[in-house]
From TrEMBL:
Keywords per UniProt: Membrane, Transmembrane, Transmembrane helix
Bilayer-crossing regions: 173-197
Name by which UniProt lists this protein: UPK3B protein
Gene Ontology terms: cellular component: membrane
Length: 253
């Protein structure tokens, strides 16, 4: 009956603990799906809703007696709570389907079109917010989870708070960092140059020790050209291959 209090379930909604792109933004946040939570209480015609409320207003939230009384997204500024993400209870039954997360505030068209049906529009402020899941049947609420811990959204920086001119301290830090980087480059160059000179000197001395004769004998232009030598008076050259023939004086008569 409508006067029956919904069953209190021990499940606590939470933002996924694992790394997730866009897990919490300035207007949205992700939630784990409440899979296998309502199986003992849900029928095929039941639906599961997500209740979103400002953290300081969650204690005063009252479950609606019927779907017609569900607080809408556009009422959030005045009622400080709304209900969204109406989903068939069978979707959250075991085994858990994928994807494993829900995104609260992901419907940007919801705010622009001013739709009357429950929608999942962007959250208007950083919060913090608390959420809970509510199982609704034909005669009203049947089961509900606990409220989540406060969820604080990221804060977007206002353009007016950004200083386009760096502070003096920041400029000094940049100059010091640049000088240190330049000094490191100079020291590295000097060390590499010293090592290269030492290696070159070692290789040059080794080459002088092993091939000094070859170097001295190669520079032949330092040796003065040899002058032709006169023939010995007692010898004349014979045809090639026969050497020199000695000339004997004629025998005396």
């Amino acid at each position: 009956s409508p006067s029956t209090l919904p069953a209190r379930l021990p499940y606590v909604p939470r933002v996924p603990p694992m790394a997730l792109l866009g897990k919490v933004t300035a207007t949205t946040f992700a939630l784990d799906r409440p899979c296998c939570v309502f199986d003992r209480h849900a029928n095929t015609s039941d639906t599961v809703w997500l209740v979103v409320a400002f953290a300081n207003a969650s204690a005063t939230f009252r479950n609606p007696p019927s779907r017609a009384d569900v607080p809408l997204y556009k009422q959030l500024p005045t009622t400080h709570s709304y209900m969204t993400l109406e989903t068939a209870a069978a979707v959250y039954a075991c085994p858990a389907p994928s994807p494993a997360v829900l995104r609260v505030g992901g419907d940007t068209a919801c705010k622009d079109q001013g739709r009357q049906d429950p929608c999942n529009g962007p959250l208007p402020s950083p919060g913090p917010y608390r959420v809970k899941f509510l199982l609704m049947g034909c005669h009203g609420p049947k089961a509900e989870t606990r409220w989540s811990d406060p969820i604080l959204l990221r804060r977007a920086l206002s353009p007016s708070t950004i200083d386009p001119v760096p502070t003096r301290r920041g400029s000094d830090v940049v100059v010091i960092a640049s000088l240190l980087a330049s000094l490191g480059t100079v020291l590295a160059t000097a060390v590499l140059g010293a090592l290269g000179a030492k290696v070159w000197s070692s290789l040059y001395q080794r080459d002088l020790g092993t091939s000094a004769f070859a170097c001295r004998s190669y520079w032949t232009h330092h040796i003065p050209p040899a002058l032709p030598q006169p023939l010995s008076p007692g010898c004349q050259c014979s045809p090639p291959g026969l050497g020199c023939l000695a000339l004997q004086p004629p025998a005396p008569c």
